[in-house]
Design brief:
Protein name: alpha-glucosidase
Number of domains: 2
CATH superfamily of the largest domain: Glycosidases
Number of helices: 14
Structural class: alpha/beta
Family: Belongs to the glycosyl hydrolase 13 family.
Shape: globular
InterPro entries: GH, GH13_cat_dom, O16G_dom_2
Catalytic activity: Hydrolysis of terminal, non-reducing (1->4)-linked alpha-D-glucose residues with release of alpha-D-glucose
Number of strands: 25
Strand content: 15-25%
Radius of gyration: 25 Å
CATH topology of the largest domain: TIM Barrel
Bound molecules: 1-deoxynojirimycin, magnesium ion
GO molecular function, one term: alpha-1,4-glucosidase activity
Distance between the termini: 14 Å
Length: about 575
Amino acid sequence: MFTRTLLGLITVVVALSAPGGSSDVDWWENAALYQIYPRSFQDSDGDGVGDLQGIASRLAYLKEIGITATWLSPVFASPMSDFGYDISDFKAIDPVFGTLDDFDEMIAKAKALGIKIILDFVPNHSSDECEWFEKSVNRQDGYDDFYVWHDGKLNEQTGAREPPSNWVSVFGGPQWTWNEVRQQYFLHQFQVKQPDMNFSSPMVREHLLEVLRFWLDRGVDGFRIDAVPHIFEYRNEDGSYPDEPLSGWSDNPDSYDYHDHVYTKDQPETVQLLYEWREFLEKYQEEHGGDSRVLLAEAYSPVETLSLYFGNGEQRGAQLPMNFQLMYLNGYSTAYDVKNSIDYWMQTMWAQHQTANWVVGNHDTNREADRMGAHKVDLLNVIVNALPGASVTYYGEEIGMANVATECTEISCDGRDGERTPMQWSPTKNAGFSTGSGTWLPVSEDYERYNVQTERGVARSTLQIFKGLQELKKSSAFQAFKTAGGFSYEAVSTHVFQIIRSNQLNEEYRIYVNLGNGIEVLNGLSDKVYEFVLLTSYSPRRLGELIDLRDRLVLMPYEAIVLRWSA
Ligand code: NOJ
Ligand code: MG
């Protein structure tokens, strides 16, 4: 009793005095973030497509598994050519997802539960069915240069008209498409149905700030900004556009990899724009109170560039430039690969800004089970949640969902369908996702085994492990991640990765992950005695068992464990 009180006192003193200690930590810095793909999370009206009422009805689940904030892929009015990443009205909810009233109710429910809602903000382009584009095509109401227009070039030999530059779109094929009405080319870094807006136009910037304000006024906590690197394009002073150089990575002239994107990615103006948006959010917070509003930046860019997007000193940009490095690991990755991947981020972002975030999946990438192998999902989940900083989980990864081999249908024929299938809630019809006769993408055949309801009842299921990790995040050792010496990570053998979290006082966690398919024996890892506090399904141990790390530690193939020492 006495020691407890004494330790309690010491902890309080440390927390108050530690520079960079937990009192300085803003909510997003070590948040558990969760991405919802709204079409696939929960259907409330039986049409086989997920919706806002469905999401609202599942917010309690997010609370249960320890989520701080959830970001929703786009729910705005859209012809759905890119499933919502082609917006036709930035201030309207698409009827397939519900109404603005449904949205407000969802926000109210999230607030009551203490879960933050982050929306997808897609500034680079709109749908070609957006009123703004229609006005621009017809040169109406000052919308002339709202998009990126150009006459193209005349080929002197053939006399034919050609696109302004050789730029190839992210999805392949030319970035320029001829518009018959306006008799000019327009730019689209993505699909033809996603024309790029012209950010040199003050009117574009104003319109998009209005969009941000509209959703902030409805109570959202921040935005995930889509396609950040693509926002600005370089233009010569005479108004022409320079060709991009060959990259040497591809032989296919129609492929995005054919060129090195020096003129269409990560332009300096984009960095400035992020600072402007952050300033806007900070001003909004000053005026309206509440917690920090956040910006997540989607940028497949070098970490050095992400550091610019984050900002420095007075120039603050996106708090969470998303770190995709761990998504590049695969089933053959060793503990050294994991370390290198983490180092790449930490040596720049942590060293300069003491910030980290770890994304392990999204709607554009194969699921963990497919990238790593089903038996390694828990290992990856342990690593990302044991590292300091924020974790970003794609819906379903917490239960070990796998990609589904899908076929083209009338609704969708997208190479990314496989990772977008319905959330698996229960071992019942349509996995509990929908009461309808069908679902927009097929439910995975493995849903009777991998689903929330079943996994709740199975010790050491992927779901239980995920929940256990979120509990650990609340411990004082995990909270002290900005204190000097608060964490370390290391490859202790080719296959075993170690993470240490400590409050530098009376609590230390050691996490060991064996990525290999062999038994690992490690000697003299520490001079203390630890307790097993979290075990994965390959562990022969029991919770509460003690281990003296002066002796040897034996790890089974694919085993991950969490050990705790306390004084
Ligand atoms: C990135 C999004 O994540 C992806 O799904 C979309 O197709 C492109 N941006 C274009 O908006
Ligand atoms: Mg652009």
